[in-house]
Specification:
The structure is a single chain. This protein has helices at 14-25, 45-53, 71-81, 100-110, 135-138, 143-160, 191-200, 234-237, 242-266, 271-288, 298-306, 309-314, 319-327, and strands at residues 4-10, 33-38, 60-64, 86-90, 95-96, 116-124, 130-134, 169-172, 205-216. It has two domains: 4-227, Spore Coat Polysaccharide Biosynthesis Protein SpsA, Chain A (Alpha-Beta Complex); 234-327, no CATH class. Helix 6 crosses helix 7 (191-200) and helix 9 (242-266) packs antiparallel against helix 10 (271-288). The chain is of the alpha/beta class and 328 residues long. Strands 1, 2, 3, 4, 5, 6, 7, 8 and 9 form a nine-stranded mixed beta sheet that branches. It is elongated.
Length: 328
Amino acid sequence: MEKRSVALCTFNGSEFLSKQLESIKQQTMPIHEMVVCDDGSSDETLAILDRFSKQVSFPIHVHQNPQNLGSSKNFEKCLALCQGDIIFLCDQDDVWMPDKVERTIQYLQEHPEHEAVFSNATMIDQAGFPTGKTSFEQIEFTPEVQEKWSSGGSFRILLKGYIVTGAALAIKKRALTNIMPVPNITKELIHDGWIAMNLSIHNQIGFTNTCLIQYREHSNQQVGFKSKPEKITLFKRFTRAREEKLCTLRKKAEIAHLLYAYFETHAQASEPILRALQQREAFYRMRSNLSRYRIFRILPVISHILNGSYQLEEGGKWWRPALGDLFE
C-alpha cells in the first residue's frame, strides 16, 4: 500500500492553523504521516501542533529551523523529509475538502503517466467566506487553456505565468529526485512553480477541475494568488510610462534566457522545449526594442501577429499587448 505524507510549512500561523489541521484530520482517506517544518514561529503555532498531535493516530514530525529559510526553501526541506510515496503540499491557512486525499489518490491511480496533480480551489476571504470565485477562474485557467494543457501544451502555458499553487498540489516522492533542489534561476520561480515547470517538460503533471481545498486570501500571505502581477488594463497600457512597459518586457526575455541556459546545461529538456524558450526570448527582445516612433513599429508588430507569435506567447487576449506595442 502506498504511504501518504503531508508536507506542512508553518510560520506564525496560529490564526488559521487549527482549521487546516482539523480538515486534515477529517479526511475520508487518512494520511500516514505529517511532516512540519516551522520557520521560526513566535506565536502559538508550535503549541497548536503539539495539541493536535495528541488527537490523531498518525505521527507528526515537527522540525524547527534554526534560522528562517523562507517559504520556498522551507518547503524544499519539508518535502525531502517526507517518507510517503505520495506527498501532499500543505499551507497553514487553507482548508481541505473531506475527500481531497481520496480524490487525489484516485486521480493518480487513473493517470499513472502523471507524477503530480493539482486541483481547483474555492477562494475564501480572511474570515473564511467564499468570494464567489474559484482559483481556476481567478488565474484564467479556462476550458480552452485546460484543453491545451491536456494536449501537451503545459510548458508553454506555465511560461506565461502562475498556474500551479503548492497548496493544491500532490506529488509522487520518486519525482523529487529529478526536481530538487530548486535551482536559483530567477527569484520569481519558487518551489511550486519549479515543480510544475520541471514536470511539464515531459507532460507529467495533471489537474482536476474539482475544488479540493478552500484557498484563503489574506493580508499576511507570503506567496500565492495575492502575489500575482496586477493585470494590465487597456487604460493603463496607454497611460503608463513607456519605460515601465519596456522593463517588464526585458524581464520576460531575461527569464526565458535564464531558463534556456539552465535546461541546456542540465540536459533536462528536449529540442522543442529549448526552441520554445529561444522563441520566447526573441519575441520579448523584439517587443522591448521597438522604435520609439510608432510608424516604425507597424511592420514588426504586424509580422509577428501574422506568424502567430503574439497568440502563442501572450495567449487569450493577445491583441491587447499587440495594440499596446503599436500605440503606447
